[in-house]
Amino acid sequence: MNILISNDDGVFAPGILAAKQAVEDLGNVTVVAPDKNNSSVGRRISLFKHLKFESCQLEDGSQAYSVSGSPADAVIVGADYVMDEKPDLVITGINKGVNISCDITSSGTVCAAFEAVSIGIPAIAASLFIDPKTSFKQDENGEWYLDFDFTVAKRVLHDLV
Length: 161
Description:
This protein is of the alpha/beta class. It is built from 5 helices and 8 strands, in the order βαβββαβαβαββα. The chain has helices at residues 14-23, 71-82, 108-118, 132-135, 151-160; strands spanning 2-6, 28-34, 53-57, 63-67, 89-96, 123-128, 136-138, 144-146. It is globular.
């Protein structure tokens, strides 16, 4: 199975690495994502500007590609230009935060999956619910931060695929 992974948080976001790790044992995985955060851009595509895509390296040392456009652009570039064959599946995410209700129409994560489906490729948009009651942690300096634990999301995504 050939799997294309993208997102709206940017190619170096921890959720995209988590998605890759969740399914890399199920097929050939290619990561193509925006070069920077593109949250809440919906299905925007770049019509009147040139897109650049470059090879880059994820935190685990694996190859990925960054695209100077939107999440929908990244899916199109990945499926039509980076991969040798059209992917069998597109996964977008894992998004930090939920995409529900009215949010789905503006979510770059969900709309990247919509773009894949519109060009004939099955897709899954994955998001992670963060419970602020249990997800706020304190570091050794006493600073508070949100702890994004992708463990359950990775397991669910793997089982779904």
